[in-house]
Amino acid sequence: MQSNIFIFQCYGMTKCLSFALFVFIALESVAGTADTISIYSNSMHRSYNCVVIKPDSYSHKKTYYETVYLLHGYDGYYSNWILRVPQIKKYVDDYQLLIVCPEGKSNSWYFDSPIADSMQFETYIAKEVPEYIDTHFKTIKRSNARAITGLSMGGHGALFLAFRHPDIFGACGSMSGAFDINLFATGKRYHIPELLGDSNFSNRYYDYSVMKAMEVITKDFPRIIIDCGNEDGFIEMNRAIHKKMIELKIPHDYIERPGKHEWKYWSNSLPYHLFYFRMFFDKQKNRVSK
């Protein structure tokens, strides 16, 4: 197995991929609609808001759609993406899919805390939200029609959840992923000790990491795209994830582009992820039809 590795330090390759994206996007020109809904969590005994973005064709076509789950970062919330990247409503038409932006609270890190019952976001995002979406929307209800990605804390969450739930997500991605939770264990800013306990629980920290999650490889391992700006403070932990995937022979696409840990980078990164997922979904359709 080989990895597809792209390091965009020269702009020629970027222009080629950008041209491919332009050709694909030019096929559609309308914009989708965004709805805010509430999804109850049985595991946390409360409801959280969620944005669902549907293509314009949703209301007048008897079509079932693939779904991309899009996670926010630390100190963010469910509506971050639609507020900061409003062109996302056009992307759902460009790629003919649903985008679901669930609530992950400001500091959940998207796992089930063993010490805080109110923070069970692995169960919520990987099980409860997809169950609700598949029940109430016209979705294709199989793992190879679902993908998950996100920024920073959400990048960690997307890979963590997809690796642990390949029966739910067939593809995953990360933008500027905050992968090394040990690095965030000290101090109060990132709230990791409130979720996993103090430094005496170092083994637990590893158990809840992407590094650990990727060690359990199955034949259903999801397709993976990872990117990070080469001026981002998290670049070294992204390189470490990439290196370990090569060592474990896990196929993945790894990209470095000029950029920092900021919305300017993530808004540029999102259409690349959606294009990647669209190609993945189309291959699954071809495979099913044979």
Largest sheet: 9 strands, mixed
Q: Which percent range fits the helix content? A: 25-40%
| Uncertain ranges | 5-20, 22-29
In percent terms, what proportion of residues is strand? 15-25%
Strand order of the largest sheet: 1-9-8-7-6-4-5-3-2
Radius of gyration (Å): 18 Å
Structural class: alpha/beta
Distance N terminus to C terminus?
24 Å
Give the beta-strand count: 9
Series of H and E elements = EHEEEHHEHEHEHHHEHEH
Number of H/I helices: 10
Overall 3D shape: globular
What would the average pLDDT be, to the nearest integer?
88
Protein model, in words:
This protein is α/β, with parallel strands linked by helices. 38% of the residues lie in helices and 19% in strands. It has ten helices and nine strands. The chain has helices spanning 11-25, 80-84, 88-95, 121-136, 153-164, 192-196, 202-207, 210-213, 235-247, 263-289, and strands spanning 4-7, 33-41, 46-54, 66-71, 97-102, 146-150, 171-175, 223-229, 253-257. A nine-stranded mixed beta sheet has the order 1-9-8-7-6-4-5-3-2, with helices on both faces. The longest helix is centred in the C-terminal third of the chain and has 27 residues, at 263-289. The radius of gyration is 18 Å and the shape is globular. It starts with a strand and ends with a helix. The model is unreliable at 5-20 and 22-29 (pLDDT under 50).
TL;DR of this structure?
The protein is of the alpha/beta class. It is built from 10 helices and 9 strands.
List keywords for this structure.
290 residues, 10 helices, alpha/beta, globular
